[in-house]
Amino acid sequence: MNRNRQAGITLISVIIVGGLLAFAMLIAFRCVPAWTEYMAVVRVVKAVAEEGDQGGTISQLRGSFDRRGVVDDISTVTGRDLIIYKQGGKVVVEVEYARKVPIVGNASLLFDFKASSASKGV
C-alpha cells in the first residue's frame, strides 16, 4: 500500500503566516510617517544652515525652519528646538527629538532622531 502524500501548507499555517505578515505591515505603515518626517527635518535643517552661512540671524533661521516646516508637514519639531552654532566658520544647525509611534493598545515604538547640517566627517 503505497499512498501518495500531498505536500503543501495547511489552512492553519496560512492563517498564522498571514497574521504575522499583517502585523509586520501594520508596524511598517505606522513607522513610515515618522521616517518621512525625519527626512524632511534633515532636508530643512541643511537648507536653514545654508541660509545661516549667507548671513541670517538666529531668529531668522528659527523662523525659516518654522515656515519650511509648515510646507513639509513637520509637526514634531519647531524652530525653538534647534541648536544653532558656528563651527569652522560655518553655521551648524542640529536638532534631537523623540517620536512615539503607537502600535496596538498600550504598545508603542519610540524613535530617537538626530538631524545635523554638519558633515559626518567633522
Domains counted in the coordinates: how many?
1
Mean pLDDT: 90
The structural class is: alpha+beta
Distance between the termini: 76 Å
Global Rg = 23 Å
- In this structure, how is the largest beta sheet organized? 3 strands, antiparallel
Enumerate how many helices there are, as a single number. Answer: 2
Strand content: 15-25%
Counted beta strands = 3
The ordered H/E elements are: HHEEE
- Strand arrangement within the widest β-sheet reads 1-2-3
Shape: elongated
**Helix share, percent:** 40-55%
Residue windows where pLDDT falls under 50 for at least 5 positions = none
Q: Which helices and strands, and how do they pair?
A:
Elements: H1 11-53, H2 58-71, E1 83-87, E2 90-104, E3 107-116
Antiparallel strand pairs: 1-2, 2-3
How does this structure look, described?
A hairpin with a 2-residue loop joins β1 (83-87) and β2. The protein starts with 10 loop residues before the first helix and ends in a 6-residue tail after the last strand. The chain has a 3-stranded antiparallel β-sheet with strand order 1-2-3, covered by helices on one side. The protein has helices spanning 11-53, 58-71, and strands spanning 83-87, 90-104, 107-116. It has 122 residues and is α+β, with helices and mostly antiparallel strands. The chain has one domain. The chain contains 2 helices and 3 strands. The protein is elongated, with a radius of gyration of 23 Å.
